[in-house]
Amino acid sequence: MKFFEKVSVVIPVYNENKNIIFLLDELLPIIAKNSGGEVIVVDDCSTDESAKLTSDYTQYKDIPVILLRHAKRFGQSACLLTGIKHSNYDTIITLDGDGQNNPSDINNLLKVWNEKQDIRELLLLIGNRVNRKDTFSKKIASRFALHIRRIFLKDNTPDTGCGIKIFSKKMFLSLPYFDHIHRFLPALVKRQGGQIMSIPVLHRARVAGQSKYSNWHRLRVGILDLWGVFWLIRRSPFPIRILDEDIINQDKEKD
Questions:
Q1: What is the fold of 7-235?
Q2: What pLDDT is attached to residue 70?
Q3: DSSP 251
Q4: d(C-alpha 234, C-alpha 237), whole Å
Q5: pTM for this predicted structure
């Protein structure tokens, strides 16, 4: 099933000069075969040639590639916020810039997105990497984090760290923003009465470069962020529901 609305694909990048062109070569034909749109690469002050290679990219001209550059390194969540704020379309797709997400999975996610038109404003589609190609230590750390997150946040999402997601721009910008928000999107969407759907996706080993986060870094910031999100959810009145609407300051239509 072809998706007929234009999309904005946001890709955060930091020192991925050996991966970004390969990713764009795969991604752009897939977007073109659907409805078209734009690809926004947000470079987080890379020290390699990631930005230059993206700026010089001319291989596939049917889909515009927009490069945004941070003046200093702000992190992955800030890259997403920058890209989404500058996007021209409401349907947002995110991908990691390391090439481990397979762009072909976008077709399956867009198919589900197309079938859920009535709830899109409060819907998050997120990939579930069923066969992760990561190191053993990284897998163990992720499983531990998932277990803790389920206890405190109860977001019922098997893979909150997957980079491939689809959601509406309006919904994302309505969420409370903080650093590392990208790790807690399911819990925040659920907090606002939204629906989360996990879709099985492929996962590939990193071809070049190295991960930007160590297990220790994830643990250190993850604990602080977890408590913050837990507090936010406990203090939140969401979702607020209106029983009905009655306009009382206007003349009612006469029979």
A1: Spore Coat Polysaccharide Biosynthesis Protein SpsA; Chain A (3.90.550)
A2: 98
A3: P
A4: 8
A5: 0.84
pLDDT of residue 105: 96
Q: Hey, what are 32's tokens?
A: 């073109």
Beta strand 91-94 with 165-168: parallel, antiparallel or unpaired? Answer: antiparallel
Tokens coding 87: 């996007």
190 and 196 Cβ atoms separated by less than 8 Å: yes
Contact 185, 160 (CB under 8 A): yes
Q: In the chain, which residues have pLDDT < 70? A: 1-4, 133-139, 141, 211-222, 236-247, 249-255
Strands 37-43 and 195-201: unpaired
196-to-121, 172, 211, 226 alpha-carbon distances in Å = 12, 13, 27, 19
DSSP string, 54-118: HHT--S--SS-EEEEE-SS---HHHHHHHHHHT-SSSEEEE--TTS-B-GGGHHHHHHHHHHTGG
Report pLDDT for 221.
63
Q: Residue 149: its pLDDT value, please?
A: 75
- The confidence score (pLDDT) of residue 146 equals 72
Measured CA to CA, the distance from residue 248 to residue 188 in angstroms comes to: 35
DSSP class of 253: P
**What gap in Å lies between CA 29 and CA 10, rounded to an integer?**
16
Beta bridge partners of 218: none
Distance in angstroms (rounded) separating the CA atoms of residues 189 and 184: 9
The three-point CA angle 44-47-49 to 5° equals 95
pLDDT in tens, 80-110: 999 999 999 999 999 999 999 999 999 999 9
